[in-house]
Specification:
35% of the residues lie in helices and 23% in strands. The relative contact order is 0.11. The strands form seven sheets. Strands 2, 3, 4, 5, 10, 18 and 19 form a seven-stranded mixed sheet that branches. Strands 12-11-23-22-21 form a five-stranded antiparallel sheet, sandwiched between helices. It is elongated and about 150 Å long. The chain folds into two domains: 137 residues, Penicillin-binding protein 2a (Domain 2) (Alpha-Beta Complex); 331 residues, Beta-lactamase. By secondary structure, it is α+β, with helices and mostly antiparallel strands. Strand 2 and strand 3 form a beta hairpin.
Length: 583
């Protein structure tokens, strides 16, 4: 019998069969590898692709003024992002969305075609803006565009107390200026997390894993600042800068009994909601960061020390020469009084009212350098006033052993050789107003934690002057304003008795190593009402120029700073409900 012959089609069919067998064997081996040998490994990889570990941001704490008015608050916003791998028509998508999110079509195309699975389209949009984007995405069925909730820091009062409050960084909402920076740890809270299974389109998978660890929201901070007093201060300060053409101005308002800072302002200022267009120089809180030589306002320490030591009384008469000369080689140091060219007898009250340099130097000689230094230190000069504000300067008070035997005492007596902040000087006058007791200034009244616990601030206190001395000084400061020859008559307030001291200091020019012949720091610091002091107000203007309507020189503190003081005192006392003490 003849053997059958293999036809070509049969051979091909056999080869296909063999190939199919081997293919199925391969598939079977692969299935066994995937479903049996390495099943756990592939299951874990699949889970990793579906599982998303997402951070749940804590809501940053709110900053309130003393009455519970919001000065810094965190609000919900919407961030729009894209997955370029899912975006189907980047050109059309960019043309539709670019005008809404504020990007050019070209820039948006670059983002939508990036080799990435995540690109931002817009960060922290207002709900109304996000709704417009969402409407376009849904109406046009745009793929790969997603939305997520984020938080945005907002400052409802715009520029009010902006240097004090500061601001946060846009990207991560970390505080980088002011109280936002100083109290970052308390304000930020603790982030939570969630574990969730999502499909390739970022949609949650029903019945998938979902584990949440909720965040701990940040603490709220309650300030001592009074929003209405702060507004009155800033309004008066801006108006003063326009009138005097000063480079800048700074004001501090203190509650003399408690140490609470009721207002702290610097002009020019900025709006933290739109700080990208602001000059970074305006971010500086000059009330605590800038040091200056206080000039005549520091004479109150010299006089108070002598009275407290029973060296003089307010009626003590002193014969004052027209010049006070200290013989030095090669040139003697000569001190004079403004507007006085002849020998004259003055009592202490007149010396203070007329801001006599020679009279104050004579008093300083009577107490000596060591006693003088001890009182300067007791008033808080040479160390930080609060100790808990960012960028706060400690000032400069040289140790008494470093004082020279010639000009150091006299120059310090009239407000030179000592560097201070305007807050420190406000505290000096607050001490006098508080019957001689120094109270540590502070601006954070309490911190309210997420669990409801409260951390209140308790200021340090120490006696500096006897009550009798302090009340004598209050009377002398009133004379500066009410005396016919007093330098501070422009600080008078119709409804209240006030007392204070003018200051006019030549600006030191470090680059030249000498004092300027024209540039001055003008100031007025005082208390009100004198009959029962409630507040201390310090006003400082940097290099005011020109003259007022009466032809008086704005470079003098009694001309430029004193009227600002009067305006602020009236507004502040009305705000806190102090009954007028002038009939």
């Amino acid at each position: 019998m003849a053997r059958p012959r293999w036809r070509v089609p049969d051979v091909r069919l056999a080869l296909v069969g063999v190939l199919l067998v081997f293919a199925w064997i391969g598939v079977g081996i692969r299935l066994i590898d995937i479903q049996a040998v390495r099943a756990d490994q592939y299951a874990e990889q699949g889970l990793d692709q579906r599982i998303k570990h997402e951070e749940l941001a804590a809501v940053r704490g709110t900053i309130f003024d003393r009455d519970g008015v919001e000065l810094a608050v965190t609000m919900e916003a919407v961030t729009v992002f894209a997955d370029p791998a899912v975006v189907r028509e980047p050109e059309i998508t960019s043309q539709l969305l670019a005008p809404i999110v504020g990007l050019s079509a070209e820039e948006l195309i670059q983002r939508l075609t990036a080799k990435s699975r995540f690109v931002y389209i817009a960060r922290r949009l207002e709900p109304e803006e996000a709704a417009r984007v969402r409407d376009v995405v849904e109406t046009e069925s745009l793929k790969g565009i997603y939305f997520e909730k984020e938080f945005k820091r907002v400052y409802p009062a715009d520029s009010l107390a902006s240097q004090l409050i500061g601001f946060v960084r846009d990207d991560d909402q970390e505080g980088i200026e002011g109280l936002e920076y100083q109290y970052q740890e308390a304000l930020k809270g603790e982030s939570g997390s969630q574990i969730i299974e999502r499909d390739p389109y970022r949609n949650p998978i029903p019945q998938g894993q979902f584990v949440v660890e909720p965040p701990v929201h940040g603490a709220d901070i309650v300030l001592t600042i009074d929003r209405e007093i702060q507004h009155a201060v800033e309004t008066a300060l801006v108006r003063s800068l326009e009138e005097t053409q000063a480079n800048s101005g700074t004001v501090v308002v203190l509650d003399v009994a408690t140490g609470e800072i009721l207002a702290m302002a610097t002009a020019p200022s900025f709006n933290p909601n739109r700080r990208s267009t602001a000059d970074p120089v305006t971010f500086r809180n000059r009330a605590i960061a800038d040091m200056y030589e206080p000039g005549s306002t520091l004479k109150v320490v010299t006089v108070a020390a002598a009275i407290d030591q029973d060296v003089i009384s307010e009626e003590t008469l002193l014969l004052l020469p027209s010049k006070y000369v200290i013989p030095l080689e090669p040139d003697p140091k000569v001190y004079t009084d403004v507007g006085r060219r002849s020998e004259e007898e003055m009592n202490v009250a007149e010396i203070v009212a007329r801001s006599s340099n020679i009279g104050t130097i004579t008093i300083q000689e009577m107490i000596g350098n060591e006693i003088h230094y001890n009182y300067l230190s007791a008033f808080g000069l040479g160390r930080k006033a609060t100790g808990n504000l960012p960028g706060e300067a400690s000032g400069l008070l040289r140790p008494v052993e470093d004082w020279c035997a010639s000009t150091c005492g006299p120059s310090t007596a009239i407000g030179y050789r000592v560097d201070a902040t305007i807050l420190q000087m406000a505290s000096v006058f607050a001490t006098i107003g508080n019957d001689g007791v120094w109270v540590q200034p502070y601006v954070v009244k309490e911190i309210v934690r997420a669990d409801g616990s409260r951390e209140r601030f308790h200021p340090l206190k120490r006696p500096v002057l006897s009550e009798v001395t302090a009340q004598t000084m209050q009377k002398l400061l009133r004379g500066v304003v009410e005396s016919k020859r007093g330098t501070g008559h422009r600080a008078a307030v119709a409804e209240y008795t006030v007392g204070g001291k003018t200051g006019t200091t030549e600006k030191f020019l470090p680059e030249l190593g000498r004092y300027s012949e024209n540039a001055r720091v003008a100031s007025f610091i005082g208390i009100a009402p004198v009959s029962s002091p409630h507040i201390a107000v310090a006003v400082m203007l940097d290099n005011p120029k020109g003259e007022n309507a009466e032809g008086a020189d704005f470079r003098f503190g009694g001309v430029s700073a004193a009227p600002v003081f009067a305006e602020i005192v009236q507004a502040a006392l009305h705000r806190i409900g102090v009954v007028p003490d002038v009939p």
